[in-house]
Specification:
This protein is mainly alpha-helical. Helix content is about 55%, strand content about 0%. Helix 2 crosses helix 3 (about 55-65) and helix 3 crosses helix 4 (about 70-85). The chain is globular. The two termini are about 20 Å apart.
Length: about 150
């Protein structure tokens, strides 16, 4: 994506942190441990470029978690994030990662966004304003690609 703020640690095709690196960002680890819907909502707002709010995504997560099927929803955003940065399915498929280790996956995705120049805790609009002030072109929304 041209114009996307990317830091030097965000090489295309590689995750910047491992799935079990939750303690690399202790504050986010604690938030995700106690209220994963917040971290997930923050991630979604950035991944969807502001078209889905943090509150909306977090509420959906919260409702689905109570019927034990949040991973069906959350894994779709891991897939979007991977496509956005050309990341591999690692260590296994997105749905399996979210089914077996949802909090670790959500933390990893948060760190990935942060390491690539986004600040999920600030929301899409604050990130876009910061890029505008810094002279970085804000990436336009991506039209969905073809699927099989």
């Amino acid at each position: 994506m041209t114009g996307t703020p990317v830091t030097n640690s965000g090489a295309p095709g590689q995750w910047t942190t491992g799935l079990c690196g939750c303690c690399d960002d202790r504050s986010n680890c604690c938030v995700t441990c106690w209220c994963p819907c917040v971290t997930f909502g923050q991630n979604v707002e950035i991944i969807d470029k502001g078209t889905t709010s943090c509150a909306h995504a977090g509420a959906i997560y919260y409702c689905l978690a109570h019927v034990c099927c949040a991973c069906v929803y959350t894994c779709t955003y891991r897939t979007k994030l991977r496509a956005y940065f050309s990341l591999p399915e690692d260590p296994c498929g997105d749905c399996l990662v979210h089914f077996c280790c949802l909090p670790c996956a959500v933390c990893q995705e948060y760190r990935e966004l942060k390491n690539r120049g986004f600040d999920p805790s600030q929301g899409w609009m604050a990130n876009a304003q910061k890029w505008s002030q810094d002279g970085v072109t804000v990436p336009p929304p991506i039209a969905p690609g073809m699927t099989r």
